[in-house]
Amino acid sequence: MANKDLKQYWKTNLRYLAILLSIWFLVSYCFGIFFVDTLNNIRIGGFKLGFWFAQQGSIYVFVILIFVYVHLMNKLDEEYDVDEK
Amino acid sequence: MSVQTWTFIIVGITFALYIGIAIWARAGSTKEFYIAGGGVHPIANGMATAADWMSAASFISMAGLISFMGYDGSVYLMGWTGGYVLLALLLAPYLRKFGKFTVPDFIGDRYYSNFARTVAVACAIIVSFTYVAGQMRGVGVVFSRFLEVDINVGVGIGMAIVFFYAVLGGMKGITYTQVAQYCVLIFAFMVPAIFISIAMTGNVIPQFGFGGTATDGTYLLDKLDGLHTDLGFAEYTSGTKSMIDVFAITFALMVGTAGLPHVIVRFFTVPSVRDARKSAGWALIFIAILYTTAPAIAVFARVNMINTVSGKDYSEMPSWVTNWEKTGLLKWEDKNGDNRVQYYNDKNESFSNSVAAAKGWKGNELTIDRDIIVLANPEIANLPAWVIALVAAGGLAAALSTAAGLLLVISTAISHDLIKKQIKPDISEKGELLWARIGAVFAVLVAGYFGINPPGFVAATVALAFGLAAASFFPAIILGIFDKRMNKEGAIAGMVVGILLMLFYMMKYKLQMFGGGSSEDWWFGISPEGFGTVAMVVNLVISFAVSRMTPPPPEYVQEMVENIRVPRGAGAAIEH
Asked: How confident is the model over B508-526, as a mean pLDDT?
């Protein structure tokens, strides 16, 4: 594969990482820690929202993030023809 | 049938199963011994990773910890799951493409230096040993409570079992036993949780149940906040730790998880890069089932516990209280001589001086070891005997699976990273395999010794193993993949300074060496558990600065980095 393509592939990969890791940071650190008191004013059933993110929500989002990444990368690998045959 | 008979039957069946699998999955080559031949299905690998990862601490201690810490317990929930996102996105696929056997392999090759390899071996051994001693101890506790054998005999039996399948089967034996152990432990964890959730909230799913209403119509969490305030504790859903410390601990645990050698090595066992990514996702799903249930159990147990004991006459105490009193993990002392159990926060001065003094309370009378919450939970909730026995088998599965994974890292570090790569490169395949088995024997014996004679520092340092991994491995691996310009000088300087700084802080504030100090003296208000975050940042900064002042890595290393960034051509792990 040409060098230029490789650079482009890597750049796209890094862009995916930046987006996914921002979400990762947002749900755990922002929702679960930094702004937990503010979010606790909102309630869903018996849960205060901040508390829910810290003990439940963030974990569900983590799982989704990994599978989104798997999907995106599999597509990207095929597009740049670097997947494993 | 009694609890003890049930325990013998269920533990006996699971042990027979593990041994059967070990015999079926004997390892014939080093490749099978180190990475199970590199042909493990991603879902099976996900289960094995989950069992490997979820130790006695996750199974036995975590829900109890959260039960006593409330919101503050979130650090463990987020910290020990969020690390898998980092693993899946930043490490697993690239290390699989690199295609060798161990983490020191990667460090040694990427930084073209045997010194770097040796530093990595030392870090791997320090991290793994601090961790494994705690597992053996967990085995001993379960045996002594449920089978009423001596704690040392319990450790001995545990050693014999692990010895059998780790030495015989290596990674191959371990992987398939771990799959079985995952099934045992998750079943054992979920059954009581579901029973209790139905009893307390009428909801079958514990994850929803603890946000639901109790039988009297109030929300369970509101009720618990109320109980806490009445007894002088902070609200369950608010917690007491400072925000910066919660942040630092969570971050250190996440990064530490991604840097633990026994977790990373699991991603060398799958057939391809694609499978490595997917496998991390499956691992997290399997882990999340337990980790999202644990906070629910914590709430149920806390409410149950307070309602059962608080203000009640001692003669009304249920049998589990006296059962656990015998083990010394639960203590009651009638300080004001009224024969009732007063359980409250006597460290809260204003509460002690007003409410407690007015009622004639003379201090908290009940001390409960947090480790018994999960084990006693079925008894607290009056579940049938076989459920209690199942929990015992689950605790053993969790402890044994993690111990085996760690022992493999230690044995590989000896046979592969030290003997094959440094001392005797021309060793034959058979010779190396023999050394791997000798290494495993050695590791089992040392772990057993620490399980029987736990040095005081083990309990304090198990949590810190994460800090050590965060401060040493994580930056070196990440930079090795994402920074082509990173050279050996930078990586070595970073790892050495990172791990020394972490060790120093740990010894100063945990073991009171180098002048010691209390929580007021913590740097930036960060506890030793969270200090791995600071040490990791220092490692990154030093690696970066040093590498830019020294020559770039040789051409072939830069090509290697280019190569691991794309999946094509991964193939099977290279034999060497």
From this structure: 78
Whole-complex ipTM: 0.93
| Tokens 């770097």 belong to residue | B116
pLDDT given for residue B461 in this prediction:
60
Which residue matches tokens 């009893």? B199
**DSSP state string for B92-121:** HHHHHHH--S-HHHHHHHHTT-HHHHHHHH
Q: Shortest CB distance from A70 goes to which of B81, B246, B277?
A: B277
Facing B211 at nearest CB: one of A1, A47, A77: A47
User: What is the model's pLDDT at position B459?
Assistant: 53
**Chain B environment of A82 (Cβ under 8 Å):** 566-568
Q: Which residue has the higher pLDDT, B29 or A29?
A: A29
Q: A18 vs chain B: nearest CA distance in angstroms?
A: 10
The packing angle between helices A58-79 and B273-309, to 10°, is 180
Helix (H, G, I), strand (E, B) or coil at B363: coil
Residue from B67, B72, B78 to probe the interface with A (highest A Cβ count within 10 Å): B78
Q: Which residues pair with B330 in a beta bridge?
A: B368
pLDDT of residue B574: 45
How close B359 comes to chain A (CA, Å)?
Answer: 32
Q: All domains of chain B, ordered by start, with CATH?
A: 3-305+376-564 (1.20.1730.10)
A5 touches chain B (CB under 8 A): no
Contacts of B163 (CB under 8 A, 6+ apart): B440, B441, B444
CA B97/CA B567 separation, integer angstroms: 6
Say which range, B55-69, B291-305, B513-527, has the weakest mean pLDDT: B513-527
Distance CA B305, CA B180 (A): 33
Contact B210 A46 (CB under 8 A): yes
pLDDT over 60 (residue A40)? yes
Neighbours of B13 (CB within 10 A): 11
Who among B237, B277, B570 is closest to A51 (CB)? B237
**Amino acid identity, position B261:** P
A·B CB contacts under 8 A: 130
The residue written with tokens 């930043």 in the block is B90
Give the gyration radius of chain A's Cα atoms: 18
- Going through chain A in order, the beta strands assigned E by DSSP cover 43-44, 47-48
> How much is the average pLDDT of B183-199?
89
Q: Which structure tokens are listed for A14?
A: 């890094």
- Among B351, B365, B450, which Cα is nearest to B406's? B450
pLDDT of residue B286: 93
Place of tokens 């930094």: A34
Distance CA B427, CA B420 (A): 6
